[in-house]
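note to self: dont lose this again. the chain is below, predicted strucutre after it. 70 aa total, dont forget to put it in the shared folder this time
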Amino acid sequence: MTLAASEKKPDAEISAKAYNDLALGRLPNHIVCLAEQNEENKDIVEDIRRLNRILVEELTKQNITLPEGE
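---
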């Protein structure tokens, strides 16, 4: 594969397929995968926050307080 001077790969680590996808405005699979993982992580973080709220509510009902900063 020969590239014109203006079409040089920006980084030698980028595969030809990924470079072509970028040049055509398509997202390479690994970027799509990262975006999907990011959405899953947001859901996990929200679940953890919800569980923390429930835990604090239950501790409060039993007059148990967490040490400062925790």
